[in-house]
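re: ur question from yesterday

yeah so i grabbed the chain u mentioned. its 421 aa long if i counted rite. heres the sequnce exactly as i have it in my notes:
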Amino acid sequence: MPGSPKRSTTTFLAIVVIFLTLSLVFYPREGFEAGITGLNLFWEVVFPSLLPFFILSELMLGVGVVHALGVLLEPLMRPLFSVPGVGAFAMSMGLAAGYPMDAVITAKFRKSKLCSRVEGERLLAFTNTADPLFMFSAVAVGMFRNAGIGMLLAIAHYIGAFLVGILFKLYGRGQDIEETTRQSVRGNLFRRAYQEMLRAREEDGRSFGKLLGDAVNDSIKTLLMICGFIIFFAVVIKVLTLSGIIPLLSLPIIGLFKLIGLDLSLVTPFMSGIFEIDIGSAQAAATKAPLVEQLAIVSFIIAWSGLSVHAQIASVLTGTDIRFAPYIIARIIHGVLAAVFTVILFNWGVGQTETSVFAPFTPSTVAVATAEPSASARWFASLGALKNWVLVTGGLTLFSISLYLARRMRIVFFRARVSDK
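ran it thru and got these structure tokens back, copy pasting raw so excuse formatting
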């Protein structure tokens, strides 16, 4: 019957909303405490860490720097991932700030016609990565109490993301026929990049004061939306656990873990990680399962990134025609690849050279693990994020220039051969 699937979806959503509302009525104190926890997470970690990156990304778009990078990196990003050169900016900012920074930038690219719909979906598929500081500091040191584990998780995570990007190069072939502002690589590469930056700045037209004000205003609005999702999902996870829904949903996962041979104590952390990355990772680190299995589950959770992050990204993409389904498929593939590479690298000895000098992680030590770092530690962490951004962008730029020069040399050589004939 026409329209019945839509009515079924509406009915299901209505039941879910009513159930969550009643659960919150039955567990008001627990829900309130979970909401406070989510708010503290946002105010102490997410807000101060993401706000500068959001503002700077808006400024770089407004002054034309991103457009110039698009010209410089077009010879690299197009052959590797079938995305425009500006995709390198989304990738590097996602690496430095983590999710949902990549989705914010990709949505702006689409609205500015810097990429087509399919290119935006490809870009979102492999740029949705966790930042290195989260894996090295929060997970490796804070949860597993062993800094050497951070390198293992980071390598597996970024290898998986790169392979997802290569795989999604084939996605949407034949559909990507929309005309976009594709950057030309003819002529002097640096002159073209400079001219493109000037053109984009002139087209924007806002004074720097107006641009800065708009950047701060838009960034605050986006972060408040993210705050709402963090608090909401913190409460949802709590009431679903208390009402027995998460244990019920864990039954098929138990069968899957038995089939694979994973420790069953990792089922609950895995289910929590499906909803929220930090909670699932911390619970996995607190189990008595073998270390390699703990790391594999945590690596999957980090790559999957959690329904809380997915909801944030879905809201960021509102107002664009970028479809959400390819993103979900990419996250599943990324999670499986990251977990597999984690096991492989662990068996090769990666991340096991540094012995732990911390007390074993237990749920009671979460507060210590997440204690506020010293001023010097925060300063060095900031330098680390800046270094990652500079290294990625600089390396990609140099490699892109090399590809461009090699292409020009082939053209000159071909013309010389033709003239000799």
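noticed a couple things. Residues 25-416 form one domain. also The CA atoms of residues 135 and 154 lie 7 Å apart.
anyway ttyl
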